[in-house]
Amino acid sequence: MATASLRIDLDAIAANWRDLDALSAPGCETGAVVKADSYGLGAARVARRLAQAGARKFFVAAAEEGAAVRQALGEGPEIFVFSGHMAGDTDMIADLALIPMLNSLDQVTRHFETLPGAPFGVQLDTGMNRLGMEAGEWEAAAPIMLGAGPRVLMSHLACADAPDDPMNAAQLAEFRRMTDGLGVARSLSATGGILLGRDYHFDITRPGIGLYGGAPHAAARPVVRLSLPVVQCREVAAGETVGYSCGFTARRDSLIATVAAGYADGLSRALSGKATLYAGATPCPLVGRVSMDLITVDVTDLGEAPQDLDILCPEQGVDALAAVAGTIGYEILTALGARYQRHYVGGGA
Ligand SMILES: *Cc1c(COP(=O)(O)O)cnc(C)c1O
């Protein structure tokens, strides 16, 4: 088979959720962010496993994603939509009992006019300038919105992965100023904010990347193993070249494996000539250009042709591979290719 195998450890995801839950302040509920198909790992399977572990609040970016999660979870768990109530979302929000995080007066008007009495939350901007109502808008709308009983007031930190950044304390102070004393549940922290400490936890946390094995949750268990099949192996004499634009020239007589995954599968061209694959614990350098469906790997030092090579494994996690590509673990995960065969291991889902 010339499609790669992506092994997803659902028990590791559940264990990461429990670890973040244990870090949280008493009385604080740990939610789970399952947007972008659970960071590329499969929203239905992941959400079911997390529900089994005890998660009751799920977060998605768009209503369509919420529909897939509702189908997987059935009635009961709350599903919050970060992008709020967009035109065209009304039926989905109503039929699937999604909870939009209202971001603007336009969205407030749409929600109250089309679905009076339906649940909602409010997203507040505390300085990131991306989503949410600004202080002035909130002051004007708060009396009406509070009267309608929002489920949660939330905001998002811009710099939580940098604990010493003064932006964190500034956003915390602004969030308190906008929400203290209102008697509504509050949520400020994603993975990075949970690690900043209990002042940042409030009533509900929203971890994503920390569930899926990525920084800044340094203690996270690895969740994915990506094994790529070797399609063929050839001897390349010293001085010969490999791949597009003759991107690699063999300095010695070499054994080169041609491996079935490329940039169409989320292996960025920025990995060309830089990444490392693993045969067990033995590192093998990627040589030449990443092409659409294939990469080439120097396996000379193995002395034999391997059946497959790993690019995500205990030896090289998502953040290590991301560093080589000049990106972040989030992008490595969410780019994981649609052609990979996803194999789930672990309990009950
Ligand atoms: C993506 C996202 C999260 C989860 O962030 P992680 O850094 O992956 O934990 C939480 N809240 C909002 C608003 C988000 O967009």
UniProtKB/TrEMBL annotation:
N6-(pyridoxal phosphate)lysine: modified positions: K35
Which GO terms of the molecular function aspect are on file? alanine racemase activity; pyridoxal phosphate binding
Name its GO BP terms in alphabetical order: D-alanine biosynthetic process
Spell out the InterPro entries in the cross-references: Ala_racemase, Ala_racemase/Decarboxylase_C, Ala_racemase_C, Ala_racemase_N, PLP-binding_barrel
Q: What is its EC number?
A: 5.1.1.1
Pathway entry? Amino-acid biosynthesis; D-alanine biosynthesis; D-alanine from L-alanine: step 1/1
Report residues binding substrate. Answer: R130, M292
On whether RNA-binding is a keyword of this UniProt record, the answer is no
- Per UniProt, residues of the Alanine racemase C-terminal domain are 223-345
Cofactors required: pyridoxal 5'-phosphate
Top class in the EC scheme: isomerase
GO cellular component terms listed in the entry, alphabetical order: cytosol
SUPFAM superfamilies registered for this protein in UniProt: Alanine racemase C-terminal domain-like (SSF50621), PLP-binding barrel (SSF51419)
Q: Which family does it belong to?
A: Belongs to the alanine racemase family.
Protein name per the record? Alanine racemase
